């Protein structure tokens, strides 16, 4: 049987532990997997682009466990009452190819994306960072805020979104949790005085939510929303004046902010910062950019974390996804020997 | 909600209609989709190879519906009590990216593989074909036999397998269904006098289960088991003396029998035979080869068929795979507002 965490059980599981504790746990699993980055099989995700949006498959393997995520990205979905991003994922045993674990990942992707941002900011932002600007108050915004507070102690938020309802929703969700929130009048206003700037907008355009003049020395830019060809958020001049960290360069050069820069634009693979093979932040004045697009290994870490966490609980059920005939060569006997034939 | 056909319901559904009727229905859906081949988004499957076997993702889309299959191939599995091939698949709506249908595909892949062979043999084998040689009596063998009988009237089988238990299983399954079965003493003996030769062995080697001298004029060779780099079944000299038909050349050149031939080895895309854009069999003496590796569009057809067939029945259940908050931008409120935070 295959273990299955559906939406209901995912929400129960998150409710039981709390999103912040889960993201803290995810940071640990992510750091473990980023440190053994070179042992994973890696490939750019397989994307099917249409005018509506994109559907992607993101596989990876550590040669013991195989995992993949199905995920879509449809910027016009919220206006029609759908989620921008929905996802589910699978783990399988490499030795026999059997799927062992299936999970909803709409909620889990939100948690792992914020946990990844927090892991990177913990390594790259100035240690005294307290204030985060949020450009975009959509689905990711609260998760980013809780993860950054847990990992770095960031508890002052400066928020800007073109949709006042989204901003109101963020204030409604985060004020009771003790955040000090300023609703900004513009992106420029939000960014003023921030230590960390998180851009998480959903428009599928080469937008410029952040211009060069808005960036101050010492900032860490956590660029989440530019994750697709033709979908970026930063003035490319910011990249030229920063040190840019990425997950997996072959994918980021297609999908990230650096798609607006030449093929040989210098980047640092973030896993090398964790292993000590590359420097992270080297001065208090440096501007660091995490050009985040989301990589399969992060989903692998997240699926591993849920699988391990729900073991021996009732937060999963067993489903019958793999046929298991007594004689593995007798699939026909298993399904059809006594069925009508020729009808 | 997403509709889910698990193994139990798949077996019930197959039992209800009978595998032969289902394969006949599948041939219809396959022909429809092969005729509109050029309207599909196509890419070679994404394979993760290890010494144990392979795990693959096979996506495709007709721009209205997106589908993919997860499938493994582990030749050593049966010796350890596992299926060589297990699979499941998903259909999703392209307009919003939501997965709508999830199905087991271990059983379904067996049905669609045989239905595909039958569709091709119907177009390429001599119309008077009555006798099929089967080299390999594993999971595929009975499905191939039933599909070929349904579509072409082939009812005489000549079977050879190195595993006498597999042969005995085939006889046990097919004799009650009225097939005239000869258990051959060798591959050469099996092939003698056959109109159609189906090779469906599982060894992951460049084997030669069929040599040039075993092939007679007018035969149709249905080469199923060569479907992976380093896994072929035919003496390459057979290919030189035949007309070779394939599903999707970029994938078949990597995985099929023609991997043992130069990059520019001439092949005919089978869909063009159905649309009349390319000739099929042009003489009674011609040897035709279907170099079958299995392509994503066949799984798409199969998933469509099951989805349509189980509609308004109890052969599926609804599962909760996609989070659906009232406010699509308020995923945090959906999962975490009232959960403990900071713990």
From TrEMBL, chains A, B:
Domain of life the protein comes from: Bacteria
InterPro entries with a match to the protein in the record: NAD(P)-bd_dom_sf, ODC_Mu_crystall, ODC_N
UniProt cross-references to Pfam families, sorted A to Z: OCD_Mu_crystall
NCBIfam families xref list: PRK07589.1
UniProt protein name: Ornithine cyclodeaminase
Protein source organism: Leifsonella bigeumensis
């Amino acid at each position: 049987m295959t273990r299955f965490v559906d939406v209901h059980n995912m929400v129960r599981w998150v409710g039981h532990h709390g999103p912040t504790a889960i993201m803290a746990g995810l940071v640990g699993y992510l750091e473990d997997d980023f440190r053994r980055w070179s042992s994973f099989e890696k490939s750019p995700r397989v994307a099917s682009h249409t005018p509506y949006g994109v559907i992607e498959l993101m596989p990876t393997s550590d040669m013991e466990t195989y995992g993949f995520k199905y995920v879509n990205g449809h910027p016009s979905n919220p206006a029609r009452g759908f989620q921008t991003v929905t996802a589910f994922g699978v783990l399988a045993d490499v030795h026999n190819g059997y799927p062992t674990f299936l999970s909803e990942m709409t909620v889990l992707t939100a948690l792992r994306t914020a946990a990844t941002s927090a892991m990177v900011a913990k390594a790259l932002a100035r240690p005294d960072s307290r204030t985060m600007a949020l450009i975009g108050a959509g689905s990711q915004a609260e998760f980013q805020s809780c993860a950054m507070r847990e990992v770095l102690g960031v508890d002052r938020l400066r928020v800007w979104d073109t949709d006042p309802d989204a901003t109101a929703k963020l204030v409604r969700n985060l004020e009771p949790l003790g955040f000090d929130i300023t609703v900004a009048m513009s992106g420029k206003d939000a960014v003023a005085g921030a230590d960390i700037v998180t851009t998480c907008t959903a428009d599928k355009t080469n937008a410029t939510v952040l211009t060069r003049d808005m960036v101050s020395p010492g900032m860490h830019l956590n660029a989440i929303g530019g994750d697709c060809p033709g979908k970026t958020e930063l003035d490319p001049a910011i990249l030229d004046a920063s040190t840019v960290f990425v997950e997996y360069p072959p994918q980021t050069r297609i999908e990230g902010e650096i798609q607006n820069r030449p093929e040989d634009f210098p980047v640092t693979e973030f896993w090398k910062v964790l292993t000590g093979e590359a420097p992270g932040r080297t001065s208090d004045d440096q501007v660091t950019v995490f050009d985040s697009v989301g990589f399969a290994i992060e989903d692998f870490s997240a699926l591993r974390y849920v699988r391990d966490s729900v073991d021996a609980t009732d937060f999963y059920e067993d489903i019958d996804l793999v046929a298991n005939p007594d004689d593995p060569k007798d699939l026909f006997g298993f399904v059809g020997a006594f069925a009508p034939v020729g009808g």
